[in-house]
Amino acid sequence: MIAVKRYEEENKEEWDGFVRESKNGTFQFLRGYMDYHADRFPDHSLMFYNDGKLLALLPAHEKEDTLCSHFGLSYGGLVMNADCTAIAVIEVFRSLKQYLADNAFVTLYYKRVPWCYHTMPSEEDLYAMNVVFNEAKLLKRDLATLLVQSNKPRWRKDRRRALKRAVANGIEVKEQNDFAEFWQLLTNYLAERHNAKPVHSLAEIVLLKDRFPENIKLYEARQDGKLLGGLVVYVTQQVIRGQYSSVTTEGKSLGAMEAIKDYLLNGDSFDYQYFDFGTSCADNENGLSESLISQKEGFGGRGMVYDTYEIKL
């Protein structure tokens, strides 16, 4: 019998311990990361127990009569341990369906963890969702770009030329713990080019960096001390994910981003299987920023989807 419990602060240690031992969880599901923006995403996370033993978690927030998993994170969905077999996951979803009905939810948005973050196969949730919820439908499919370290294509010619310019002009790449100068560059770039701003404020990214120093890192490209560009990455057990990037006009012409990508993709700083360049969404016929995804493909990345499902009860 699966029992469902809503997460409370007193469960933090149990929650975090489960995430660290799970087969598809990452540091973004730890409470120190999730709770920093609880004011914007009212938490309604769930814990699933089988005969008193914690079997799965659902990082989630509520929005009126909808449960969302989890729009404040890069990905979401059911976090499972190695004991979470197919039949068990079906029972978890049946318990979830009953919980939603009992608590007057009429819609579930289910945003799942992409396969590259799984340390073991973890797609039982997709099957169980289809079994338990007859009306589950694909609401949104975003295309990300993924590099497989063991089978990476050669960089495209324009990316190789840009890297040669960076080397010729003495561009240096180093990890930086002070985010302030890069965050101003990033903020100005997003405002001027996209009338947007970073999802995280400087104070928030500094807070998260302090909490997760081995998972959140900034790499900057400089020439004679002058900032030309930077890239913030999220480091998980087998994936590095590009989270924020920006270059100056001069940095673009000198190959600053190519220098950073060469440092991360071709150097020996990390032991990883995949580099997730993130999605390339745009409001056009294809739903893609063609220039952005072309740049990522130039580094050897290829397509992987981020899916969100809608379930009406």
Could you write a compact summary of the structure shown?
This protein is α+β, with helices and mostly antiparallel strands and 313 residues long. It is 33% helix and 29% strand. The chain has ten helices and 14 strands.
Overview of this protein structure:
The chain is of the alpha+beta class. The protein contains 10 helices and 14 strands. A 10-stranded mixed β-sheet has the order 4-5-7-14-8-13-12-11-10-9. Strands 1-2-3-6 form a 4-stranded antiparallel β-sheet, with helices on both faces. β10 and β11 form a beta hairpin. The mean pLDDT is 95.
Question: What is the secondary structure topology, with strand pairs?
Answer:
Elements (H helix, E strand, L loop, with lengths): L1 E5 L5 H10 L9 H4 L11 E5 L2 E6 L2 E3 L2 E4 L9 E2 L5 H17 L4 E5 L12 H9 L4 E12 L8 H12 L3 E5 L3 H15 L7 H10 L4 E8 L2 E10 L3 E9 L1 H6 L1 H10 L8 E6 L10 H9 L3 E11 L1
Parallel strand pairs: 5-7, 12-13
Antiparallel strand pairs: 1-2, 2-3, 3-6, 4-5, 7-14, 8-13, 8-14, 9-10, 10-11, 11-12
Helix pairs in contact: 3-4, 5-9
